[in-house]
């Protein structure tokens, strides 16, 4: 469902992403970990078509994001770490607006928001201006809206930012359930605990390169560690293994 081939992005003389190649299958929950400025968000922006790669390609459900942008984006949902919402709209209006952007028919558009509104506990805020909402509530509105058209691929950057433990649990459970029904999830996070709990596979990006990818157990074997995923992550990024990419599994 997601295919990155030799993906490169240069900003002047700075190479932010350096030759990332990766395949993520249908229904797979893939988490990307990396230090600050590792290239995670730049990779995501190329994946969803917000910036053009210097070299290489990204495909969603078989469609090239640059050559076939409309076909790719119909199958995609994307929530950044600080999502942009129209502040003067209410959550209800924003949900309908999002559904209309994805050309949902009126009947499913009328029915689809209700379970998401209940799941993300938005009833109290449904008819209040988005500008009056807390960051955590805005994040819940953004995620609910992104799920409205039942995307095949869901890309989300730092989803737990601003969420209290209860709503973080709701988001985790919702994404895991959707993945079990076939939605591919590509999640970027700084939190090794989130990746360890949620991911089928974990990729580690360091200095713009994908230096390791595999299950948490495979990463532990590569790093020679045990215990929490944090130990493997620190060993791989700080040790000699960070000097060359590793193929695991």
Tell me what the structure shows.
With 249 residues, the protein is an alpha/beta fold. It has two domains: 1-75 and 152-249, Rossmann fold (3-Layer(aba) Sandwich); 84-150, no CATH class. Helices cover 37% and strands 24% of the residues. The protein has helices at residues 40-47, 69-74, 91-101, 106-111, 113-119, 135-147, 165-180, 192-198, 216-223, 229-238; strands at residues 2-11, 14-24, 29-33, 55-60, 63-64, 76-79, 153-157, 184-188, 201-206, 209-214. Strand 4 (55-60) and strand 5 form a beta hairpin. The longest helix has 16 residues, at 165-180.
Keywords:
four-stranded antiparallel sheet, alpha/beta, six-stranded mixed sheet, 2 domains, 10 helices, 10 strands, 249 residues, single chain, Rossmann fold
What's this, in brief?
The protein contains ten helices and ten strands.
Which helices and strands occur, and which strands form pairs?
Layout: E1 2-11, E2 14-24, E3 29-33, H1 40-47, E4 55-60, E5 63-64, H2 69-74, E6 76-79, H3 91-101, H4 106-111, H5 113-119, H6 135-147, E7 153-157, H7 165-180, E8 184-188, H8 192-198, E9 201-206, E10 209-214, H9 216-223, H10 229-238
Helix pairs in contact: 3-6, 9-10
**Secondary-structure element sequence?**
EEEHEEHEHHHHEHEHEEHH
> What is the CATH topology descriptor of the largest domain?
Rossmann fold
Intertermini distance:
19 Å
Structural class: alpha/beta
CATH architecture of the largest domain: 3-Layer(aba) Sandwich
Q: What is the C-level CATH assignment of the largest domain?
A: Alpha Beta
Helix percent band: 25-40%
Query: Can you tell me the number of structural domains?
Result: 2
Give the name of the CATH superfamily of the largest domain.
Answer: P-loop containing nucleotide triphosphate hydrolases
């Amino acid at each position: 469902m997601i295919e990155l081939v030799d993906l490169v992005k240069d900003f002047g003389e700075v190479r932010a992403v350096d030759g990332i190649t990766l395949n993520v299958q249908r229904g797979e929950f893939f988490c990307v970990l990396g230090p600050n400025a590792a290239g995670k968000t730049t990779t995501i922006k190329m994946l969803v078509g917000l910036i053009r790669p210097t070299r290489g390609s990204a495909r969603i459900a078989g469609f090239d994001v640059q050559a076939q942008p409309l076909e790719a984006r119909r199958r995609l949902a994307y929530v950044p770490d600080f999502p942009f919402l129209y502040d003067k709209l209410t959550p209800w209006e924003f949900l309908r607006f999002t559904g209309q952007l994805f050309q949902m028919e009126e009947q499913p558009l009328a029915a689809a928001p209700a379970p998401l509104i209940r799941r993300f506990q938005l009833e109290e805020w449904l008819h209040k201006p988005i500008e009056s909402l807390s960051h955590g509530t805005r994040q819940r509105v953004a995620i609910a809206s992104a799920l409205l058209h039942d995307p095949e691929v869901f890309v989300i950057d730092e989803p737990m930012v601003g969420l209290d433990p209860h709503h973080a649990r709701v988001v985790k459970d919702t994404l895991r359930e959707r993945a079990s029904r076939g939605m591919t999830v590509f999640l970027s996070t700084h939190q090794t605990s989130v990746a360890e709990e949620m991911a089928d596979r974990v990729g580690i990006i360091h200095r713009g390169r994908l230096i390791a990818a595999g299950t948490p157990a495979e990463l532990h074997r590569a790093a020679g560690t045990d215990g929490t995923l944090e130990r493997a992550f620190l060993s791989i990024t700080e040790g000699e293994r960070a000097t060359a990419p590793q193929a695991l599994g």
